[in-house]
Fold this sequence. Notes:
The chain is α/β, with parallel strands linked by helices. The protein folds into 3 domains: 31-146, Oxidized Rhodanese, domain 1; 155-253, Rhodanese-like domain (Oxidized Rhodanese, domain 1, 3-Layer(aba) Sandwich); 286-384, Rhodanese-like domain (Oxidized Rhodanese, domain 1). The chain has 15 helices and 14 strands. The protein has helices at residues 2-24, 30-37, 49-55, 72-76, 118-128, 140-146, 155-163, 176-179, 195-198, 221-231, 243-251, 286-295, 308-313, 327-330, 348-360, and strands spanning 64-68, 85-86, 106-110, 133-137, 169-172, 188-189, 210-213, 237-240, 301-304, 320-321, 340-343, 366-368, 372-375, 381-384. Strands 2-1-3-4 form a 4-stranded parallel β-sheet, sandwiched between helices. Strands 6-5-7-8 form a 4-stranded parallel β-sheet, covered by helices on one side. It has a 4-stranded parallel β-sheet with strand order 10-9-11-12, with helices on one face. Helix 4 links the parallel strand 1 (64-68) and strand 2 (85-86). The N and C termini lie far apart (103 Å).
Amino acid sequence: MRTKQTLLATLLLAVFAAAPVALYAPAADAAETAAAQAKEGWFKNLVDFDYMKGQVEIPPKAGVTLIDSRPAARKYDVGHIPGAINIPDSQFDKLTGKLPADKNALLIFYCEGPECMLSHKSAFKAEKLGYTNIKVYPHGFPEWASKGMHVAVSAAYIKKQIDEKTNAVLIDARPARVFAKGSIPGAINIPETQFDKEAGKLPADKATPLIFFCGGLQCVLSDKAADKAKALGYTNVLTYPEGYPEWEKLHGAPAAASAAPSAAPAAPAAPAAVLEPGKEKGSVSIASFEKVMKESPASILVVDVRDEKEFKKAAIKGSVNIPIDQLEKKMDSLPKGKPIVFVCGTGGRSGEAYDMVKLVGGDLQPWFIEAETTFNADGSFVIKPPKK
């Protein structure tokens, strides 16, 4: 009996001695887990949805290129991750010119989910070209869309909706003054800053496809307006991040927008020797702005009307941030003794700020930059002259 008890005790001790190894062994890290789930033929560097959320932004993050490896017409055009370029794997060798010149830039490939091998195949091809920072998002576009994230469409898709006269509603989220110069044919104008007041322009049927766009990849108005539409219960909300600048490049400006502009009136009250007017009413010439910023920046106040998030990433040295949706409330804080120059990424919000100040700003001296402006982290900037 004692022998049996001794044997049983020995066996139990052996079992419990081994148990802690299984119960308390450290969990594998995310990379190991991903590798364990990887299928044959998959690329080695895999990322998940949470990682993607940190990389997908409008304006796009510097040094990050998202690549949709799916076919254009059947997949990419009708829905893709915002900011992604399309390089179908079947045409990879022909379209390598779309890839960044910097071989150390982050490339993230994706396609149609875990069963789709296109992104992995393209990632291996990019590796052979010498790119050193390549990742694949294996769950791809289906997971992205299922999580309720923004879904973007292409210019080709929009052209098809117009040609086929579908019930899709195109919504230009830029200020009215910019919309009046030219927009995608058939689009309605609901400025993002006036969305709550003008939401009545939206269709009653909440399932109607809505496609929001604005001034290109540096413009956040369409994303913000799309979020507001979703909050109202619209269930088929899309964005066209490349917006009107790409559309105009591809299809030209509509006839209504090609009329000769009227002569620019006298500039707002401001020292003539300091700032000179641009072609657009209230705008400042790029040359005079750059000269003032170089020689006497303290003689003007530069007000950046982009969102705080954009401003914190990069802004003109010495500028202050008053987001366009807060400007009316903070107008009393603006100085009356010097010219005020409003800036943004494309000229849309800055122009709206000018209009707002002229309407209710009393004797303030507003100007605005009517051009595409690139902001650098060191406080410098580059202004691209507006199209003639």
